[in-house]
Backbone:
């Protein structure tokens, strides 16, 4: 089994003291999440908890007609497995890797043992759950009330925050699915943002050129969500 060389770059694991982390360190396995990899399939038994450390995950809702829309995003601020935290045994929705990157995983059984009682990991996971639910609610309002340009900017900014790099890979098809729109709409918006000098985008390769411009173009939902995450990241003690 591959072992960890350093403390994983994940906020929840970062909340743990050295002694608390040592208790679970041997249970954590470093992995690399490839883009579009299915992390959890709706209805399947929950077997593995994933803590992103650079990878970005998308929680998706599928309709009977095949349409799909993103309802939640998980980066290094959280973990995939809130169903288990709430005593669930199966995945409520499908989660895939949005942007490839590093992560660590542990078995559901080990996670359940680690969050027993008044453990630090339970408190950290509960803090993330609270923020995650608030972000999902904000996303519902955003998808209903704001236009595609505003939502495109918000979504790119959120991805930029979680990846921690100015370059990352995203296809137009994937962005369309995340925003719940058709690919040609994404193509028009991406071209406009590129002409404005906010991004470079070619063949699925995204580069942030003018973050301030993206922030100005985004709806209020971006700053609301960013503030919630930053508040969660404050030390527990």
Residues:
């Amino acid at each position: 089994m591959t072992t960890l060389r350093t403390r994983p770059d994940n906020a929840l694991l970062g909340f743990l003291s050295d002694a608390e982390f040592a208790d679970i360190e041997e249970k954590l396995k470093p992995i690399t999440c490839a883009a579009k990899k299915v992390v959890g399939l709706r209805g399947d038994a929950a077997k593995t908890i994933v803590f992103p450390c650079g990878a970005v995950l998308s929680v998706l809702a599928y309709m009977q007609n095949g349409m799909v829309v993103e309802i939640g995003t998980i980066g290094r601020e959280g973990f995939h497995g809130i169903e288990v935290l709430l005593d669930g045994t199966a995945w409520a929705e499908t989660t895939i890797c949005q942007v490839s990157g590093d992560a660590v995983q542990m078995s559901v059984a080990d996670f359940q043992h680690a969050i027993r009682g008044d453990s630090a990991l339970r408190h950290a996971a509960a803090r993330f759950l609270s923020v995650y639910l608030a972000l999902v609610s904000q996303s519902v309002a955003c998808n209903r009330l704001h236009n595609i340009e505003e939502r495109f900017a918000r979504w790119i900014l959120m991805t930029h925050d979680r990846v921690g790099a100015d370059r990352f890979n995203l296809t137009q098809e994937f962005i369309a699915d995340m925003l719940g729109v058709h690919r040609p709409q994404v193509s028009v918006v991406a071209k406009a943002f590129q002409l404005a000098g906010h991004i470079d985008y070619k063949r699925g390769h995204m580069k942030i050129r003018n973050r301030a411009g993206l922030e100005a173009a985004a709806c209020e939902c971006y700053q609301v969500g960013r503030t919630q995450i930053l508040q969660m990241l404050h030390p527990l003690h």
About this structure: The chain has a mean pLDDT of 91. The two ends are 33 Å apart (CA to CA). Residues 11-142 form a domain with the Jelly Rolls fold (CATH 2.60.120.10).
